[in-house]
Specification:
The complex is a heterodimer of chains A (about 475) and B (about 230). Chain A has about 475 residues and is of the alpha+beta class. Chain A has 17 helices and ten strands. A six-stranded mixed barrel of chain A has the order 2-3-8-5-7-6, surrounded by four helices. In chain A, helix 13 packs antiparallel against helix 15 and helix 15 packs antiparallel against helix 16. Chain A is elongated. The chains are: A alpha+beta (about 475), B alpha/beta (about 230).
Chain lengths: ~475, ~230
């Protein structure tokens, strides 16, 4: 029934092309901002949650957080914020140090701990001492499985820092030490632990090392090569497939032996450890824990025990049981469930998304005000036309409807175009933001609800913005309207 | 059919009150070509607006077929204008962004008559005023005479019983003006009430009935024989 009015409104929009487009542009900008921010936000959330899902919501990590990791920064060693240059922070460098940094080598001479004995400690010993303080949870996983019957499996992943010599390059690198049961149960935590060239570990009696894709490439390591770890010869048995996830610093530094990349992974909280440290296999070397425990003289830097809860068991009850077990074993550590971490991160992301969307909504309101201004001016400009319409029999309601459709259509067109532009922007945005956010590649999420919501909202915004001008138009006295110039 | 009974109309223009009509009583019948004359400010246009229910009197009644137009709701008055009244203005009053045929079809479109039907009837109306080849032109591409004929076609599209014209030849040359007047006259011959407001004495000569207004009052009201009829 309103079809004829719709046609008349469309004709009017077309006949005032420039004004209409400028008004539509105002709405378009607002809708674009809202769509881009919301879809990127949802995309980030989905990508982050996907990472947790890949690891598994049935997993509980036991980190040394409550124990040694907590005291670490108080001792002045590995604050992530202290790593500004190519060197680690700390002002207590031994003045007579003989170590010199060469290209492609990380020199830990400045790696300071205020408590270390400057007169006797060599830089290497200082570093090892520092790492030794970060001892692991020292949980016996087999005992844990008997103490906590709700657990299906458990394994330990350690991370150590060792001096490495590969060919002519030397420096410190992260060496991950997964236990055999860890590799069996939780390969997904190490991105699948997919050996691209060579084999996986064949025994626990030989010095075998598996190298991450990026480290292998940068250090020119091949299967069969011999490299020195902690002054011991190791044979490279396998090279992992690239996971595509590298730390930001590693990408900008020339050398994989970068102290920054290393400490970033060590110096951040447990969620980051899961996200970038544990799952980032490209920069690491891998030695079996069973072997590492027997050959390496330096201590474990951090070790995380990973457990999987049997299906049907309550996560929180299992965590309570783990806490009891930690006490019984006189070990240290704090259980964290992936579910918990995921919930926490999702909550934060949702909050950020809401704040961003609110800011974008301001742009939308500005667009609405622009539309109202246009419609108000249109009523003034079209006063005579309103008079004509009334003289040929248009009812007040029809005049009002005509103006409402007019402004609603401009809102809707702005909404449709904003939706398209916002989608394009969010696609570009995710490409640009993906690496920076450390969630790898991800896609914006544009669900039917958002699309429908944006279209309905932009039409309503248009119609509401035009409501008052339209009402004024409908109330015009036809005689006065016809007299207008 | 259309009756004015002691109609007063007062306007407020800024601070001053304008007494446009000061007690006009008239009765007009269909089939009559009535011309209202008078100098500027005599109340001619006001009388026409009241006759077409574009406005309501301050006092007195304007009634059509014994219905007091002032007592109708705004919606019913709009419907009355749509079905019973056709307006022709001095300035044509066509909608600039619509084509000639769309302007003619406008009253039908406002009655939710499907576009196809409305366009067909508008075509007929345009043929009736001799503009069948100008249907897709916008008003700005038409001459003054053509625009006025479009306005007449629009006024007639709903087959109204009352045709009201306010200085319909005011902006036209004599020859074109004469053709327009002929057209208007012809409708009174098919039993419509045609009311033309003008201060052109030549039009007065064509009237069946001549009403002269001065200062908001009827100064003269006479029936006359028209030689050409």
């Amino acid at each position: 029934m309103k079809l004829n009015l719709l046609r008349l409104a469309l004709k009017n929009i077309r006949s005032r092309r420039t004004r209409s487009w400028l008004t539509i542009l105002g709405v378009l900008v607002g809708v674009t901002a809202v769509v881009a921010l919301l879809s990127i936000g949802s995309g980030v959330q989905e990508a982050v949650l996907q990472q947790f899902e890949d690891i598994g919501y049935d997993i509980i990590l036991i980190t040394p957080m409550g124990g040694n990791m907590g005291t670490r920064s108080a001792e002045g060693g590995f604050m992530p914020g202290a790593t500004t240059g190519g060197r680690l922070g700390g002002q207590s460098a031994p003045s007579g140090s003989t170590s010199t940094g060469t290209s492609g080598t990380f020199s830990p001479e400045n790696l300071g701990s205020t408590s270390m004995d400057e007169s006797t400690a060599s830089p290497d010993t200082a570093m090892r001492d520092a790492f030794q303080r970060l001892s692991g949870t020292s949980l016996d996983t087999e005992l844990l499985l008997t103490q906590v019957p709700q657990l299906l499996e458990a394994g330990t992943l350690g991370t150590q820092i060792h001096p490495i010599i590969a060919g002519t390059t030397s420096g410190f690198l992260r060496v991950s030490t997964p236990s055999l049961d860890f590799l069996d149960a939780f390969p997904s935590v190490l991105g699948g632990f997919d050996v691209a060239v060579g084999t996986s570990f064949t025994n626990t009696t030989e010095n075998q090392v598996i190298v991450g894709a990026r480290s292998a490439e940068l250090l020119d390591i091949h299967v069969g090569d011999e490299i020195t770890i902690d002054e011991l010869p190791f044979t490279v048995v396998g090279i992992l497939a690239a996971s595509g996830e590298t730390t930001e610093e590693a990408e900008t530094e020339d050398s994989a032996l970068s102290g920054q990349a290393l400490t970033q992974n060590l110096g951040t909280g447990s969620a980051d450890l899961v996200l970038s440290g544990l799952t980032n296999t490209d920069d690491s070397l891998f030695v079996l824990k069973e072997r590492a425990d027997t050959v390496f003289t330096s201590g474990v830097t951090t070790s995380v025990t990973i457990t999987r809860v049997a299906s049907g068991e309550s996560i929180s009850e299992t965590m309570d049981a783990i806490n009891v077990a930690i006490g019984l074993q006189e070990a240290s550590g704090t259980p964290i469930s992936i579910q918990e971490v995921a919930d926490e991160i999702q909550g934060t992301l949702s909050l950020i998304e809401t704040v961003l969307a609110s800011i974008a909504a301001v742009a939308l309101i500005v667009g609405g005000v622009g539309l109202m201004n246009t419609m108000y001016t249109a009523v003034l400009e079209r006063t005579r036309e309103i008079g004509i319409l009334k003289s040929v029999g248009a009812r007040d309601g029809q005049v009002m409807t005509l103006f409402l459709i007019d402004s609603g259509l401009m809102g809707l067109i702005g909404g449709i175009l904003g939706l398209v532009l916002g989608s394009v922007l969010s696609l570009l945005g995710t490409r640009l933001l993906g690496p920076g956010l450390g969630v790898g590649s991800f896609s914006p999420v544009l669900d039917a609800g958002l699309i429908a919501g944006v279209l309905v909202f932009s039409f309503l915004l248009g119609a509401l913005s035009g409501a008052w001008p339209a009402w004024r138009a409908s109330r015009l006295n036809p005689v006065e309207a016809l007299a207008a110039e | 059919m259309l009756a004015f009974d002691d109609v007063h109309k007062t306007y407020r223009m800024g601070e001053t009150q304008v007494l446009a009509l000061r007690g006009v009583s008239l009765e007009m019948a269909p089939g009559q070509f009535t011309v209202i004359m008078g100098p500027s400010g005599s109340g001619k246009s006001t009388l026409m607006h009241l006759a077409g229910s574009l406005d309501v009197p301050t006092s007195g009644t304007v009634s059509c077929r014994d219905v007091n137009l002032a007592e109708l709701s705004p919606r019913a008055r709009a419907d009355f204008r749509s079905s019973d009244v056709g307006f022709v203005f001095q300035k044509y009053n066509l909608v600039a962004n619509l084509t000639a045929i769309e302007n003619v079809a406008l009253p039908l479109l406002l009655r939710n008559i499907p576009t196809k039907v409305a366009n067909a009837r508008a075509s007929e109306a345009m043929a009736m005023v001799g503009l069948e080849d100008r249907t897709t032109h916008r008003p700005s591409k038409l001459s003054g005479g053509e625009q006025q004929r479009v306005a007449i076609a629009r006024a007639l599209i709903n087959h109204p019983s009352i045709l009201l014209a306010d200085e319909p030849t005011g902006n036209l040359d004599t020859a074109t003006g004469d053709r327009i007047l002929e057209l208007l006259r012809s409708f009174s011959e098919i039993d419509k009430l045609v009311l033309v407001v003008t201060h052109n004495p030549e039009i007065a000569d064509l009237a069946d009935r001549l009403v002269v207004l001065r200062d908001g009052l009827v100064e003269a009201d006479q029936l006359q024989e028209v030689a050409s009829r």
